[in-house]
Amino acid sequence: MDLFSQMGAAAAVSDEQILARSRQQIVSILQRFKFVRQCIKCSAKNLLNVDEIFLKAQQAVLYPITPLYDLNQGKIAHNCHRAFSRIFRMYDKDNDDLLSNAEINAFQNDAFRVPLVERDLAGWKKVVSKNNPSEESVIRNGKFTVAGFLAIFDVFISQNRLEVPWRILRAFGYDDDLNLDIPESVTSPPPADAFYSEYPSWSLTPSARNFLTATFHQFDRDNDGKLSMDDILAIFAIVPEPSLPPWHPFRTQEVFGGCFSFPRLSAQDVPPGSVSMSLLRTPSPPPPVAASFLGPLSASEITISSTDDLPSVDVSRAGSNSNSQSESDSVRGNHAASLTALNFNDWMGHWHMINAISPISTRAELYRLGHMEAKSTLHSSRRRQKINKKPLVPPITDALSLLSPSKELRVFVLGSRNSGKTSLLNALSMDSSRMDETKSPLETQSTDRPQSCCIQVEFGHKGDLVGVDKDIEEGRKGIVVHMIFTEVPQGKGGEEERIRAELKATIGDGTAKRRKCDLVVLAYDVGSQSSLSYAMELEGSLLTDDVPRVYVGTKADCRKETDAGDAAGESTPVGIAKNHCSELDLDLPLLTSASLSMLGGHDSAATKCRAEVLRHFARCALNDKARSTPYADKKRRDAAKRRRVLWLGGILSVSAAVVIGVSALLGSRNEGKKERSVVGLFKSLFGVASSIDSSVPMAAVSIAGNDSS
User: Fold this and answer.
1) Whole-model pTM?
2) From CA 166, how far away is CA 65, in angstroms rounded?
3) Domains of the chain by residue range
4) CATH class in words for 405-630
5) Could you report the per-residue pLDDT of 430-473, keeping only the tens digit for each?
6) Contacts by 689-694 with C-beta closer than 8 Å and gap 24+?
7) How far is CA 650 from CA 599, 643, 646, 655, 663, in A?
């Protein structure tokens, strides 16, 4: 690229020495001010290159180089690297970290509405391979890698064709600062004709599940079934700074600040306001895109050989040494230590948790990761509703979904302060594989805001969960139930109204109507009468008879309190709770403890006990093999009795209607007769006239006819 071609064409041969001195001055300016890209000789008096000057000035404003390129380091800027990496992932449909000819052609069609030919692709592969010292890093198996995809834009930047990358970025929703605009279609609820009625808004759609499943297996580099800290950071490297998961404490205050609850994790809390991130922005329409960016090289005015005035981009280390990026990496590294390895169930559980807390923020985060909700899946799901109104297991829309059939349940944990509900959740969420790293569940901190966490339990044997087993196909081992627990602290002032609204809120309409809460756990301290009284008061003021609930007595490792309750009847909280549940026809309260002797232990018995408690909660939420709603058995018996009465009444009504209809038919045939005989009616109905004694007195028949009339 010759920056001085205009000057060379206009200069006279006799002025070569003057031109040489001018060039030296211009080169000195270019060396001092790296943001100067072009020098054009112009004259307003002679009308020399006036239009060209205005055109270049307009292009400098519309297509600035600074957001795209770090002139000091001679590399693609980090934000630009992140934006094009996200676009790369969006079109890497097979998740092999490569863009095939079909995938890059799909990108070309979406960006410019211009198809590609094989000759153009072959030419571009030669260009990026020649400009990069390592051919394997940009082209692998005849496909573009991420480095190769970025090398394409290196060529455009080197040739000062900045309008091409800018038009692509703006077409995909990036503004002048390379911030991604979230479309309103992502942040707003889906329309009625495309709504997953079997999936409430807080439940992930099948398309989102498949995307997250594919992402997990794509970034599980060592195939050990877990995402390491580096794997998690690689997944979120394309989201805005600090490029951490949304459930990380460094981001929770900003992402879930206005929600009912926020994620509850074991990592250290970060002071509020330490991060300022813009999550939702007003979308702006992308500018019109004129031409293909991967057309023939001659049409793009790009030559394979370029000068050294603008250094070639090292795409493998693009933007990694800039000052702003160094600060970002420092912040990211300081907080990445709190990330722990996640297996597949934990990975999906975190997404179920944040989607239950804020579906809008979760959809926005998935959009930043490159997920686009498939409209075809929406319509196909709508058709499936007519066949199965309330499927308990998500319909299979992709082969990856076969790996882990699952269901989500929302559980609210209510209780007084110091009732032990926090320790209970700490104990239930303990991971037996990381016992050495797990803190004691009894180490808790008070909070004034509801907190949510997700705990998984697997039903691996047929018959464990009747309501779900019928939807599991033959050959599957079981189902994973993701239980999103929301711990609600003791209310202050108007908090009770908000809790009541959350408990009564429903999602969907018609047959798809479903509560946002599947189960309420009422926790109380077995040694505190006031704790049980508060739990019973909450039950009476907040819960209706159709809300499943279960009483859980905590701190039950002190056996004398439990034994005293059994002996003294209603004199202790344990006895009062048992009598209360018996009166409401509920299952008896669970007696648990987060101490080492029970749920908080590290042995196999404690692990089994934790799983049994979680399975009991799941059955209570589904009303399966458990009595979790008041007078449920009595209501079922009464309903069955009413059905039998209605069935009998229906049969009698139909029989009476048949008799009356037949009587009317026979009466129309004997219009001349004023009196009809019941015996004659049965003769005509059953054909038994020959068996009736003809010697019956006519007077008796007449009397019978008069009585019947």
Assistant:
1) 0.76
2) 9
3) 5-62, 69-182+283-319, 202-276+341-399, 405-630, 646-708
4) alpha beta
5) 876 665 555 678 777 777 788 999 999 888 654 455 545 444 44
6) none
7) 54, 10, 6, 9, 20
